[in-house]
Design goal:
The chain is mostly beta strands and 514 residues long. It has five domains: 2-119, Immunoglobulin-like (Sandwich); 127-220, Immunoglobulins (Immunoglobulin-like, Sandwich); 225-323, Immunoglobulins (Immunoglobulin-like, Sandwich), CATH 2.60.40.10; 340-423, Immunoglobulins (Immunoglobulin-like); 428-513, Immunoglobulins (Immunoglobulin-like, Sandwich), CATH 2.60.40.10. Helix content is 3%, strand content 48%. The chain has one helix and 39 strands. The chain has one helix at residues 2-15, and strands at 26-31, 35-37, 43-50, 62-66, 69-71, 74-77, 80-86, 94-104, 107-119, 131-135, 139-145, 155-162, 165-168, 172-173, 177-181, 195-203, 208-216, 221-222, 227-232, 239-244, 254-262, 269-275, 281-284, 292-301, 318-323, 340-345, 349-355, 370-377, 382-387, 391-398, 402-409, 419-423, 433-439, 443-448, 457-464, 476-481, 486-489, 495-502, 512-513. It has a five-stranded mixed beta sheet, with no helix packed on it. A hairpin with a 6-residue loop joins strand 19 and strand 20. The longest helix has 14 residues, at 2-15. The chain is elongated and about 135 Å long. The relative contact order is 0.08.
Length: 514
């Protein structure tokens, strides 16, 4: 029996010479190997074998150490001692250094040194992490993660499978992934095939594992970038965009994304269109007149099965910039009952300032934009003025009731409609009064209810602060119920506030300012 053990250890000595550091008079050998598979090994043995011992007396003075820690051992035969070691549960990849020492009066004397490596077979990544892309059906490239959880000489071998067997592909690598490109011609592959089967073999010092991937060519096509985008046949609200692309004859549907961005940042949209075959034009509708737009176009092939990392298969975006034609304003300015002030009053005449909300720049629809404001008396007299600001003061109007009509215009024409408000002679009993304006990360505005009247609602007007009680720009209206005598806004910029009371018979007070 001792002879058999000696022969086994002698064979292991030859097998592990490259991995172990040999002493002059002893060697360390591991059983079952100096590379331990943590997945199926619970214990291992470390042998110290004398290579020039002349008697059994020498063996009694030998000890085995793991670093500086003494390991319990037993004498196996005249030249060998052995230590039995249990594998640590849930151990990760690591190595241990063992030494064989002779106990001398002057202290332990090292005779041999050896390393044992602990690891696991290579871990396989999820199949969906193997990603292949066919660039407009011209060539295919694939990549997969180079995930190495412990350094045990892990290698990756990718190949294609065909009737002739396994054909290895040349791959390139960085720290994150391995890549293969069909243009390098390193393995059996044809773009004309409907699909390709790949086999990946991952090997380390512990074991080897493999995984198969079947790639359907039409499901991985990434179309080329659309080119020569042109916008034509433009109107105030539409534009036809055309482009060129080489045709892809696939038994698949195509999905296009059209992303529209205006210079004002208004009316932006992202729209998806699914079609049975490739298209080369698109009609953009519901545009704002006299506005610069940029349209981005990209396309992808819809696969028959769910495809991970779907965003990778969109083509690059192509863009075209165009401007819609001018058009007369579509909307009239917003007005509110009570949005006026009687600035000056004599026995039979008054000056009245009226206010309305400005129309945003992107709705001017052309050059030469302005407002037309008309005061119409009960007798039918009309007083009209064209202005640029959202306010106007009528001078020397006869005291009485007026309808105020406000529309917008530009160089093309005037808005189809107008909005109307009313002004009434001043009645002090109908006037609300601002109670307080408190500012703290916004505004809290409150007012007193008219003592001798019962409003049905209130109109609150506010705008950017001016030194005088007026609004020139950024005017905004809020209608509040009669039971509500306060208003809160989170706007932090300096603001002017004014409030008017509205009554059931559609009569209103003028504005009271803070």
């Amino acid at each position: 029996m001792k002879l058999l053990v000696t022969l086994i250890l002698a064979l292991k000595l030859i097998s592990f010479q490259r991995s172990f550091c040999l002493g002059k008079s002893a060697i360390i050998v591991a059983e079952p190997s100096n590379v331990i598979n943590l997945e199926n090994t619970t214990a291992y043995s470390v042998f110290c074998v004398l290579t020039n011992a002349s008697s059994e007396e020498n063996i009694a003075h030998l000890s085995i150490y793991e670093k500086s820690k003494h390991i319990t051992s037993e004498i196996l035969n005249a030249t060998t001692i052995v230590a039995r070691v249990n594998v640590e549960q849930n151990a990760t990849c690591h190595k241990k250094i063992y030494s064989c020492k002779a106990n001398k009066p002057e202290g332990p004397q090292g005779l041999a040194l050896g390393k044992i490596y602990f690891g696991r077979p290579p871990a396989l990544f999820p199949p969906h992490d193997f990603v292949c892309i066919s660039e407009h059906k011209r060539h295919i490239h694939c990549q997969f993660p180079a995930e190495i959880k412990c350094d045990m000489d892990t290698s990756f071998k990718l190949g294609t499978l065909s009737r002739d067997g396994f054909s290895e592909c040349n791959t390139s690598a960085d720290h994150k992934s391995y890549r293969w490109d069909s243009r390098n011609g390193s393995c059996a592959f044809s773009m004309g095939d409907l699909s390709t089967s790949f086999k990946l073999v991952v090997r380390n010092e512990i074991d080897a594992r493999s995984i198969l991937f079947n790639v359907t060519h039409e499901d991985i096509v990434r179309p080329a970038k659309p080119n020569l985008l042109t916008a034509s046949q433009g109107t105030a609200k539409t534009a036809k965009v055309t482009w060129h692309m080489s045709e892809l004859n696939l038994l698949r549907q195509f999905k296009y994304e059209f992303r529209l961005i205006s210079v004002h940042g208004v009316g932006n949209l992202s729209r998806f269109v699914t079609v049975p075959k490739m298209i080369s034009s698109y009609l953009v509708e519901d545009l704002i007149p006299h506005t610069i737009y940029t349209l981005d176009v990209r396309v992808q092939v819809l696969p028959e099965v769910l495809r991970p990392f779907d965003d990778l298969y969109w083509s690059e975006c192509a863009s075209v910039t165009f401007k819609t034609a001018a058009h007369r304003p579509i909307t009239a300015p917003a007005v509110a009952q009570g949005a006026y002030n009687i600035k000056k009053r004599s026995a039979d005449q008054m000056n009245v300032s009226v206010f309305w909300e400005p129309i945003p720049d992107h709705l001017h629809n052309g050059t030469g934009f302005g407002y037309r404001v008309t005061a119409v008396s009960d007798s039918g007299n009309r007083f009209t003025k064209k202005v640029n600001l959202p306010t106007y003061t009528f001078s020397n109007l006869s005291i009485g009731h007026y309808r105020i009509q406000v529309s917008s215009f530009n160089d093309v024409g005037e808005s189809e409609s107008y909005n109307e408000m009313q002004i009434f002679p001043r009645n002090d009993n109908c006037q609300p009064q601002i109670r307080s304006v408190f500012k703290s990360e916004g505004y809290n505005v409150s007012w007193f209810v008219p003592e001798k009247a019962n409003p049905s609602s209130y109109t609150l007007m506010y705008c950017h602060f001016t030194s005088q009680a007026t609004c020139h720009e950024s005017t905004q209206f809020v209608t509040l119920p009669a039971a509500r005598t306060f208003f809160v806004t989170t706007q932090d910029s300096a603001l002017n506030f004014a409030v008017a009371a509205i009554y059931p018979d559609n009569h209103s007070s003028e504005l009271s300012w803070q």
